[in-house]
Amino acid sequence: MSKTPCCFVLGAAALVVGLAAAPVAADVDFGVRAGAYLEDSDPMVGVELLMPMPARDWFFNPNIEMIFADPQDRQSLNFDFHYDFRQTAEYYLWAGAGGAAIHTDSWRNRDDEWNAGLNLLGGIGLRLQGMTPYAQLKVVLSDESEVAAAVGIRF
């Protein structure tokens, strides 16, 4: 089994601490998502925070995704920002971008690899009392660019 590099562990730990502290901050939402990276139909799950920025209708959305692929699993630590450009009483639409640190762990030959990426994303969320179910499409530009589709829920 390979050793995960220190910077991924520290980044993941910082996000977990932020997730634990999220209920304390009234304006921070916690979310979970599931979906797939479409080229090879690799399933993924993720956790996220959604925090409003000082500029109106801008949000910071740090998240971690675990991508389950054969023969190499990946973890993606993402620092996404998005703008809500259409808001109604029933739904809202967003588009955004952000940086990604992508860790690939090829478990068959025990190789670890890190790549930087750029996320381009868009989505739609429904306004329900106490929760926001949503769907999102994301393009990851990196050494191995991919498209991911996910559904999630924020609380």
Mean pLDDT: 86
Helix proportion? 10-25%
SSE string, helices as H and strands as E: HEEEEEEEE
Structural class: mainly beta
The global form is elongated
Terminus-to-terminus distance: 35 Å
The portion of residues forming beta strands comes to: over 45%
Q: Over all CA atoms, what is the radius of gyration?
A: 16 Å
Explain what you see.
The chain is mainly beta. The protein has one domain (6-154): Porin (Beta Barrel). Helices cover 10% and strands 63% of the residues. It is built from one helix and eight strands. It has one helix spanning 6-21, and strands at 29-37, 42-52, 58-67, 72-87, 91-106, 111-126, 132-141, 146-154. An eight-stranded antiparallel beta barrel has the order 1-2-3-4-5-6-7-8. The longest helix has 16 residues, at 6-21. The chain is elongated, with a radius of gyration of 16 Å.
Secondary-structure map with pairings?
Elements: H1 6-21, E1 29-37, E2 42-52, E3 58-67, E4 72-87, E5 91-106, E6 111-126, E7 132-141, E8 146-154
Antiparallel strand pairs: 1-2, 1-8, 2-3, 3-4, 4-5, 5-6, 6-7, 7-8
Which features would summarize this protein structure in a list?
single chain; 155 residues; mainly beta; Porin; 8-stranded antiparallel β-barrel; 63% strand
Short description:
This protein is mainly beta and 155 residues long. It has one helix spanning 6-21, and strands at residues 29-37, 42-52, 58-67, 72-87, 91-106, 111-126, 132-141, 146-154.
